[in-house]
């Protein structure tokens, strides 16, 4: 019998949700969690609403690594990076030692996409994808006034709203004429844009090409030559699943680390979940999918092979300036957006040729329909 522990790499929501679910089913099997960060538990979605809620990075911690060790009855190695995986020997390589595993779970998260920029101040650009990033950004923005955000996606829009709420003057550079264009059609997208503009956010069409030190703080230059003066720059142009280490170990990767519905990679006893994973063809970097994955994988790891099922999982965009909920669907031949605007907001429904609901984007008070509509959507994975 293999007495090596189950090793989970990562201590984000995917890793810790899995560990909690696993402990509900198996109180005894040795569990080792290895994490490059401090191992404190926190809810990542809170990062983009923390100013409004008056919370510092430290105040976002819901449970310290020490308490997590106790609660999970796990060994948690913090500030420890796994540098390689040997799937044949069933070992992970740390800087100064090698650890055996019985089963290995990759919960590695995603990297922020770095903008390609000219200029002498490119090292003054922040991105926020974990608690430590957030602490650095808060320190940099302390006592400053003007923040320029790159990217009008979900995270860029949420930070814009949060920073305005905290009294910052916010500019957003976004290369499309409305935000969140990959998730919704123009009308609800414009509602978000206008809602944030009414709060005072200045929108710039384009993308940044350079950031330089100027006489008055930083100067951001856009591709059309427009310049924006800023004290702090926050890049929110996207996330990319962390696949390199898995790929180097011979594990199949595409957009994410490829798994089947049991979260199994092609390597024996190696699983993946959360933002790093591509599960049965889906990369869904949100909380609800990772929770469904964690429940299924916990059951599998404790002896009952279980496939993950995904119902439709709408995402709430945390922009109080324009409350928004969106359920995306892959573009389908013959399907179209039916957009209705009322005084209360926008109700955009994505329907197939027979009128069957496939997705939606709701703004304002129309978001109240979110749960009712979600019930009509087909599951993502049955
Ligand atoms: P992460 O939390 O990134 O964890 C990855 C872990 O792996 C970290 O502990 C890291 O240290 C560790 N790691 C990586 N490589 C190594 C290595 N080689 N060795 C050791 N450790 C390693 N989703 C929603 O559904 N709703 C929302 O409202 C929402 N808001 C969001 C707001 C923001 C600002 C952001 C950034 C994301 C938001 N999301 C939201 C997405 C959601 O938070 C993520 O999908 C989720 O937190 C991902 O968890 P994870 O555990 O997969 O990754």
Task: Provide a brief overview of the structure.
Residues 6-278 form the FAD/NAD(P)-binding domain. By secondary structure, this protein is α/β, with parallel strands linked by helices.
Q: Say which molecules are bound, naming each kind only once.
A: flavin-adenine dinucleotide
Task: State the end-to-end CA separation.
Answer: 35 Å
Q: What is the CATH architecture assignment of the largest domain? A: 3-Layer(bba) Sandwich
Quaternary status: single chain
Find the count of extended strands (DSSP E, 2+ residues): 27
Task: Please explain how this structure is put together.
The chain is an alpha/beta fold. It contains 8 helices and 27 strands. It folds into 3 domains: 6-111 and 240-302, FAD/NAD(P)-binding domain, CATH 3.50.50; 114-235, FAD/NAD(P)-binding domain (3-Layer(bba) Sandwich), CATH 3.50.50; 323-376, Enolase-like, domain 1 (2-Layer Sandwich), CATH 3.30.390.120. Strands 5-2-1-9-21 form a 5-stranded parallel sheet, covered by helices on one side. The protein has a 5-stranded parallel sheet with strand order 11-18-12-13-14, with helices on one face. A 5-stranded antiparallel sheet has the order 23-24-27-26-25, sandwiched between helices. A hairpin with a 5-residue loop joins β26 (345-351) and β27. The relative contact order is 0.14. The structure holds flavin-adenine dinucleotide (FAD).
């Amino acid at each position: 019998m293999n007495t090596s522990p189950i090793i989970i790499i990562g201590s984000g929501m995917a890793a810790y949700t899995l560990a909690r679910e696993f402990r509900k089913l198996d109180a005894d099997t040795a569990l080792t969690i290895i994490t490059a960060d401090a191992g404190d538990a926190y809810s990542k979605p809170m990062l983009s609403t923390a100013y409004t809620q008056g919370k510092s990075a430290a105040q976002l911690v819901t449970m310290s690594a020490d308490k997590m060790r106790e609660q999970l009855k796990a060994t948690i190695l913090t500030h420890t990076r796994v540098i390689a995986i040997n799937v044949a020997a069933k070992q992970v390589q740390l800087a100064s030692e090698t650890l055996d595993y019985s089963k290995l779970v990759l919960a590695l998260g995603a990297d922020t996409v770095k903008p390609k920029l000219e200029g002498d101040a490119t090292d003054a650009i922040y991105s926020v994808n974990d608690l430590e990033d957030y602490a650095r950004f808060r320190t940099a923005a302390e006592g400053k006034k003007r923040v320029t955000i790159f990217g009008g996606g979900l995270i860029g829009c949420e930070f814009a709203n949060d920073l305005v709420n905290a009294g910052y003057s916010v500019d957003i550079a976004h290369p499309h004429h409305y935000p969140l264009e990959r998730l919704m059609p123009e009308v609800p997208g414009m509602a978000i844009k206008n809602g944030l503009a009414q709060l005072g956010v200045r929108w710039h069409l384009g993308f940044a090409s350079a950031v330089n030190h100027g006489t008055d703080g930083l100067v951001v230059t856009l591709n059309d030559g427009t310049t924006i003066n800023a004290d702090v720059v926050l890049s929110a142009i996207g996330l990319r699943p962390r696949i390199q280490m898995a790929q180097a170990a011979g594990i199949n990767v595409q957009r994410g680390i490829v798994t089947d519905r049991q979260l199994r990679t092609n390597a024996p006893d190696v699983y993946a979940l959360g933002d790093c994973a591509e599960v049965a063809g889906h990369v869904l970097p949100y909380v609800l999918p990772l929770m469904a994955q964690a429940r299924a994988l916990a059951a599998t790891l404790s002896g009952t092979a279980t496939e993950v099922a995904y119902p439709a999982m709408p995402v709430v965009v945390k922009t109080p300036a324009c409350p928004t909920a969106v359920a995306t669907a892959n573009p389908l031949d013959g399907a179209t957006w039916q957009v209705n605007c009322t005084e209360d907001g926008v109700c955009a429904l994505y329907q197939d040729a027979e009128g069957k609901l496939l997705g939606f984007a709701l703004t304002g008070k129309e978001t109240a329909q979110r749960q009712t509509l979600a019930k009509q959507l087909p599951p993502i994975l049955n």
